[in-house]
Design a protein that fits this description.
The chain is built from 13 helices and 9 strands. The protein is an alpha/beta fold and 312 residues long.
C-alpha cells in the first residue's frame, strides 16, 4: 500500500463527511484511511460506517482523548502505508485527481521523502478564499535551511504534506503552536522537499482551530519558540530571515522587558542578541515598530551591529 491517509477526528462530523466525500472520488485507489477519534460519543464511528464499503477505512476510538498533536501520532502508529498523509478533518482534497498527483510525484522522485503542494485557504466563517503558493525565493531558502520556517510557515498545514514512513514521522507533543514547523524542520534535515505547484488541498479556517487559541498568546508562543530555538541552536539567528522572525515575535507580543519572557513561562537561557532586541524595542515608540518599513530598518540595523554576538 502506497499511502495511509491519517485523520485525527474530534466531533465535527459535518466537516469529516466533506473530507471523506473528497476521498471517495479520488482516482488513485492504493490507499487506506485511518481515523483516530477523540470524540466523547459515537457520531464519528457512525459516519465512518457509511463509508466502509467505498474504500479501505479503519476506525479507532481513543479510550482517553489524546489531544493535539498526540492524536495525529496515534494515526501514524496505526498506519501501514509506505507514505503518511495527515488530513485534518476540516480540510479536504480540492480535486478528484489530487491523491493521484501526490502519488505520481512520489513515483517520479524516488529519492524524496517529503512532498507538499500548493493549497487554498477557505475561510469557513466568511465568503473568502486565498490561494497559497510558495515563491521561488522562499523555496530556495527552505532547501538551504529548513529553520527559515521560523520566519513563515511557507509549507502550510500538515494536510498539504505527504512523508515517507521513517522513525522521524512523529509530532512533538510538547508543543502545539510550533508543532508543524518543528516536524518539518526535523524531517527536512535529511531530505530535499518536493513541491507540487498545483492546488491539491482545501484548508478550512474557522474559529475552532487550535492555532486560533494560541495566536499572540505569550504563555504559548514564548515558551514554544524558545523550545524550538534551543532544538536547532541559537546560531540559526545568523540567518536574517530567522533574525527577523525573532524581532517580529518580540514586537508582536509587545515584549518590552526581559522579565516578561520569564513571566510568559520561559526561564531558560536567552541569547544575548534577543535580550538586546528587547532593549532596543523598549526605546522605540510602538507606533513606529508597528510600521513595517520602520520596523525592518531598525531590525536590519540591529542585525548588522550585533551579528558578531551570535554564536557561530
Amino acid at each position: 500500500m502506497l499511502i495511509s491517509i491519517c485523520i485525527p477526528a474530534y466531533k465535527r462530523t459535518d466537516f469529516l463527511q466533506r473530507l471523506l466525500d473528497s476521498i471517495t472520488i479520488q482516482t488513485f485507489r492504493d490507499f487506506e484511511v485511518i481515523v483516530t477519534d477523540d470524540s466523547p460519543d459515537g457520531a464519528v464511528n457512525m459516519l465512518c460506517e457509511t463509508f466502509r464499503a467505498r474504500f479501505s477505512l479503519t476506525y479507532y476510538r481513543n479510550e482517553q482523548p489524546l489531544g493535539t498533536p498526540e492524536n495525529w501520532n496515534e494515526g501514524i502508529r496505526k498506519a501501514k502505508g509506505e507514505w503518511i498523509k495527515i488530513m485534518h478533518d476540516d480540510d479536504w482534497f480540492a480535486t478528484a485527481d489530487a491523491l493521484e498527483i501526490f502519488a505520481q510525484t512520489i513515483r517520479d522522485h524516488p529519492e524524496a521523502s517529503f512532498v507538499f503542494s500548493a493549497y487554498k485557504d477557505v475561510f469557513l466563517d466568511e465568503d473568502r478564499q486565498r490561494e497559497m503558493h510558495i515563491s521561488h525565493y522562499r523555496y530556495k531558502a527552505l532547501v538551504r535551511n529548513s529553520a527559515t520556517l521560523f520566519s513563515r510557515n511557507v509549507i502550510g498545514p500538515p494536510s498539504v504534506v505527504a512523508c515517507r514512513r521513517s522513525p522521524d514521522i512523529w509530532y512533538d507533543n510538547k508543543v502545539k503552536w510550533v508543532v508543524d514547523i518543528d516536524f518539518y524542520m526535523r524531517l527536512l534535515q535529511h531530505t530535499v522537499p518536493v513541491y507540487i505547484p498545483a492546488i491539491l488541498v482545501n484548508v478550512g479556517l474557522g474559529g475552532q482551530q487550535v492555532t486560533r487559541d494560541c495566536f499572540r498568546q505569550r504563555p504559548v508562543e514564548i515558551p514554544e519558540n524558545f523550545y524550538l530555538l534551543n532544538k536547532v541552536g541559537a546560531r540559526q539567528l545568523r540567518n536574517i530571515l530567522i533574525y527577523d522572525a525573532w524581532w517580529r515575535l518580540m514586537r508582536n507580543l509587545e515584549i518590552r522587558h526581559s522579565y516578561e519572557i520569564a513571566e510568559a513561562g520561559y526561564t531558560g537561557e536567552i541569547p544575548a542578541v534577543i535580550l538586546s532586541m528587547v532593549r532596543w524595542q523598549s526605546r522605540i515608540p510602538h507606533s513606529l515598530l508597528k510600521t513595517g518599513a520602520f520596523s525592518k530598518t531598525f531590525m536590519f540595523l540591529h542585525y548588522i551591529i550585533h551579528y558578531n554576538r551570535i554564536p557561530a
